[in-house]
Amino acid sequence: GKGIAVLTSGGDSQGMNAATRAVVRVGIYLGCKVYFIKEGYQGLVDGGDNIVEASWSSVSGIIHKGGTVIGSARCKDFTTRPGRISGAQNLVDRGITNLVVIGGDGSLTGANIFRQEWPGILDELLAQKKITEEQRGKYGHLNICGMVGSIDNDFCGTDMTIGTDSALHRIIDCVDAIVSTAYSHQRTFILEVMGRHCGYLALVGALASEADYVFIPEWPPEIGWPTKLCSKLTQEREAGQRLNIIIVAEGAIDRNGDPISAEKIKQVVVDNLHQDTRITVLGHVQRGGSPSAFDRVLGCRMGAEAVMALMEATVESPAYVVSLDGNQAIRLPLMACVEKTKAVAKAMEEKQWDLAVQLRGRS
Ligand code: F6P
Prior knowledge:
alpha/beta; elongated
């Protein structure tokens, strides 16, 4: 059978285990030899015990766990050619020519570079007699399939990334908890949520929890935002509300591109309205803990599709990424999605926020 390896890379997210489990089980079901690569790309570079064959039962009892049981890392070595050469040797030694990478756009770009360099690297290994002629012939092409594991939902091409739904559940649980204590003390709370440069978690979290105000990077407020904020909060209090909830994305900015921090917002509220105000930074609570049913099933579906994509890949096939499109798990050319994601980042940097939102499309 064909050799498939799976690794998780970059920041973890809930549902990665479901995806890993699906890769292992669908792979074995189709007669492949499936390997775990532990600790992300570092395990690929280091080889040894980091690359182990998976069995059907080795992925039992992991679907409900947060994080990634095979470990993840942000790896410097794999960004260098010697690191990738070492990784290729480790794969060829085990007859692995199919790689599933679960990670963010940086991790998936790394996978694509690896795939492009693969024939050249194998020639180099052959010249150094580190692989045989037979291995060079048999393993001459590397197939790649990515899945996006990230709570941020910041990848173009997919409606949802693996982990976003669980993070949202965590966020609304936290807001609900805060609301009860805010009510008792008639307080205003500012909640900072994750998402890097993407406001998805903040926006959807705010909608789902009936927050009074939200700050997101894609919709920077006018410079006079403090006045608008204060009048909205005052209006809510005058209407009988005992508390206010403001959600701020960690990447929120104003029209000048200057950060709008929870501290800054607090200062505005305290100085102008003299409300009893507290800040809660949700942090990594959003990224840990049990995955939601949606993320478990999303991971399963994407993992299964990733293996199918690899089994059907030919030398002409591009590197793929599995995406959720209108509730279907489909495969898309990886680099087209990465390029679009980079174009969003560029538009944001150039303060072309409408363009960024338009490019991001449904995600
Ligand atoms: O990309 C996921 C994410 O949780 C972001 O929302 C956040 O900005 C970042 O990772 C935090 O990174 P770290 O876990 O390295 O502190």
